[in-house]
Amino acid sequence: MNAFSLMLAGVAAATSPLDEDRPAQRQGQEAPPAIVPAGPDPVYPADFYKPFQPQTALDMLERTPGFLLSEGTSARGFGGGAGNVLIDGQRPTVKGGGITEVLRRIAASRVDRVVLLRGSDAAEAQGQTLVANVVLRADAGGSGNASLTLTHTADGFVSPAARISHARAVAGWQTSVELSGEMTRYPGHGTYLDRDAGGVLTSTRQEHTSAKAPEYGLALSTSGPAAGGTLTVNLRLNKDGYSSRRGIDIFGGAADGSPDARRDIAYDENRRSGELGLDWTRRLGAGWTAKVVGLGRLERYVTDEDYVEAPYRGLSSQLEKPAELVARAVIAREGDHPVRPEFGGEVAYNSLSSQLDYAEDTGGGLIPVALANANTRVSEMRGEAFANLTIKLAPRLNLEAGMAAEFSRIRVRGEAAQEQSLSYLKPSAALVWSPSGRTQVRLGARRTVDQLNFGDFAASVNQADGRPLGGNSGLRPARLTRALLRLDHRWGKGGAIAVEAYHQWHTGLLGYLVLPSGDEALGTIGDARQWGITAQGTLPLDKVVKGARLTVDGTLRGSRLRDPVTGRSRAMDDIAARSLTAELRHDVPALKSSWGVNWTAAEQADVFYTGEVLRWRDHALWGAYVETTALAGFKTTLTAKAIDGQDSSRSRRFFAPSRTGAFTGSEQRSQRQGAVVSLALARAF
Fold first, then answer.
1. Which residue, 409, 435, 406, is CA-closest to 420?
2. Which end of the chain has fewer surrounding CB within 10 Å, N or C?
3. How far is CA 330 from CA 123, 131, 408, 499, 521, in A?
4. What is the value of pTM for the model shown?
5. What distance in Å separates the CA atoms of residue 527 and residue 509, rounded to the nearest whole number?
6. What pLDDT, in 10s, does the model give residues 123-147?
7. CA-CA distance, 570 to 555, in Å (whole number)?
């Protein structure tokens, strides 16, 4: 509670010199340009969300029928990491994860309506087939939100999480600030069974884990008139970490009597990051709008691991420093025009310096172990030019077409210095048919280029699994061509269903291989295909139980590639064949309350290393919640997650000298985390 009090005091101090509360007229600012997609848009006014008792814009989007929030990705650059949320027609200048913070700072009372844009292929949300535009009230005054959550985990600890935000006009600039802090715990226990090639149990390991993850954040944003347009500034500062202690008792054969050995693993992560985003938008006349974006991000990430099993000890420490600078400009014609062009370009500079120290002690003291590219610096200068065109072919039929050209130069410095220049064309096209205001059909195709993870250029080590990985300075990104057919239909008050079938062609897919140095690492393993069908639906159940609705989200997938080790056909790495979540919610306005249950189906997938096949499986999860505003001024929510426990399992099958060789043994792991119960109090002010 002390941390929560400090947060309240901090925001009070920060907001004390602000103007007196008054409606934010956005004086001097231009109204946001209209976003006109390829067909009628479902519109959900603020009154639609009242039964859900929302406190923030995030609460409202989570209850928007047939919509799933995508925060975007941490892919390098700005355009490639687009999420599926706009604020007053503009994408917030934040990277992956930041959109949640932006939505949390917007009080529900400030939202006028949510418009779902179907078939909008603008650069503001590249590749998204359904985009939510949160339209704010022009006359909204000062507002704020505060929340406190207490979470009880199976180890008996109660962990706090607190957030407070405030938004108001300051000298004509709409300004908001959020302070947050939380502690998350991950207790668990597991059992490992090791067997030889004949299936004989050779050892049993019983593991007890205690882990915690603190996180603290400060987010600021302000928007106001500048140079004839509107300037928005976003600042994010974060400090987070993860610390785990694993104690493992080892038995020869079955777990009978006292353990024969003991293994202790201490693991710590510490990360600090800062991000500054600038966005300037101005109308040019005749429906044309110009937009300029600048973004910079710095991180410092330290990972330490200490593995002890007498007389052996392994010690590793890795320091990573990512950095990113992005500049982007777009000019587009908006409004109800038969032809709507859009042109733009982006320049991005990214870098990562990585230093890994790894040493082993087998009884004679710590001795450094060399790994390929243990000390590496990677940098990339990337430029992209793009053009998009939306043409109204008929009153209910639109054509969307686009072309982007990407050029990049990647430099790797270290023991395996290398430089490569890459260029790609990325076309896209879609036909969007809207036979009615309720239904839309989209047929499209798009080519993209995967973003390389700079961390894969550098060496890493997983001591718990005994898996050191070398860095590969010759990595090249995979190319992806995706074709889709999507149907979106809505009916009544809150009914929605969206079904999408897709097929993807992967060129130059990345997987695990052996480098000339003898180290295992990520590299290009060939081409692959993936196909599937996804469905999201919201079904009102008022005819059965007034105020009830069922929400479902599911995917069926298949994939195929030619294994570079065995030469046989197999599935792609880490692709689950199916996933499914469902929620039943019942709103009871007379009691100012709601309750619900949710379920997540089990998932499993395989990962193929050069000498190992790993299969992970997450078991099904049940959850439930009750929320009420009966306590005046507060929204109170009681939530239970993983009611019957959070179970997972993993199997590892080993081969020598590779997966083409003989089977040498296996490891079976089963883990369990108990139920998590939380009580949350939230208040808007």
1. 409
2. N
3. 8, 19, 20, 32, 39
4. 0.83
5. 6
6. 455 556 788 889 888 776 788 889 9
7. 20
